[in-house]
C-alpha cells in the first residue's frame, strides 16, 4: 500500500512538472503589512464535568482559581476544604482577526492543563483573553465541544482522539479593538509569503502596468512598496481591491519534500540532478534467542537453570547495481525508474539523501 501511494504521488508530481506554471492572484502570494491577526490567551475554569475533572491534590491551581471565581460572585470559601471532581483548569486560546470590531465573536480553543481526563460536557466560565501587551481584548464563555471519546471499565480504559481539548465556536466576544488606522496609510507594503526576487519583480511590474505609472517599488526579495497616491485610488482599501486580484506567475526554489512515515515524495518541476552513479543494497541482521532449560537427573542434587543460546545471521538482499544517471535528468524521471524497479519507499528516500549529500541533487531537501 505504501508503494502504491508513493507511485500515485510521483505520478501527480510528474504531471505537475509537465504542465506550465499557472498565474496566481497577488492576494494569494502576499500579506498586506499591518493587516494581521493577534493571538489571545487566557486562564479559566471548565465546570460541569462528569467526574473527569482535575484531582485537586495534584492540581492546586484549580482550587485557587475556583476560590477566586466564587469570591468574585460573593461566596466566601476561605479556609474551606472541597475536593470536587467536576472542574478543570484550562488554557483558552484564540485569534483576534484583522479589523475585528467590538461586539464581534471569534472561535476559541480550550485545553486542560491539569490531570483532567476529559472536557466532554463541560462549560467554560467567563474567561478574559489577553494579548501580548497584557490588555484584555475578548471574553470567552460557553459549552466546550471536545474532539475525543473515552470509555473506562474496572480493568481497562480506551481513549479515541483528544478529549482533554476542545473548541467553542463563536465562544468569545471582542471587547476591545486594535488601534490601527488603515485609512491613514500613505504607503502600502506587500510582504511575500515566500520571498523571491523574481516574484517580487513580477508583482512590481504587474501593479505598475495596471495603474499606468510607477506606483510600486520592489524593496527586497520579500517586500514590494506601493505609493497609494500614485495609484489614483480614493482610499487604501480601494487600492488593495485594485491590486490583490492581479495575476502573477510566481517563481519558487526547487524543493524536494519527503515524509518518511508514509513514504510520500513531493517535488517541484525545477528539480535537476547532475551526472552521478548510484548503487544500493540491503543488509539484514537476524538475531533469535532460543534458551535451553537444563534439569538435574532424578533424585540428584542441583537446580534447574536456563542456558542461553543465540542464533545470529546476516543476509545481504539483492539491491540496485551500479547505475549511472546522466546529467540534466529530472528527479521525476529518476524516481519513476526506481519505482519501476520495485525499490521500497524507505530505500528510495535513502537514495535521495545520498544523492543530495554527494552534491548532485540541485534542490532544497526537506525531510518531515
TrEMBL record:
Question: What InterPro entries is this protein classified in?
Answer: Flag_FlgI
Q: Which GO terms describe its molecular function?
A: structural molecule activity
Superkingdom of source: Bacteria
Q: Where is it located?
A: Bacterial flagellum basal body
GO CC terms: bacterial-type flagellum basal body, distal rod, P ring; outer membrane-bounded periplasmic space
Query: Which GO BP terms, alphabetically?
Result: bacterial-type flagellum-dependent cell motility
Keyword Signal recorded: yes
Described purpose of this protein according to its UniProt entry:
Assembles around the rod to form the L-ring and probably protects the motor/basal body from shearing forces during rotation.
| Known partners and oligomeric status | The basal body constitutes a major portion of the flagellar organelle and consists of four rings (L,P,S, and M) mounted on a central rod.
Record-stated family: Belongs to the FlgI family.
* Stored PANTHER family: FLAGELLAR P-RING PERIPLASMIC PROTEIN FLGI, FLAGELLAR P-RING PROTEIN
Q: Name it.
A: Flagellar P-ring protein
* Organism the protein comes from: Salipiger marinus
From the broadest rank down, the organism's phylogenetic lineage runs:
Bacteria, Pseudomonadati, Pseudomonadota, Alphaproteobacteria, Rhodobacterales
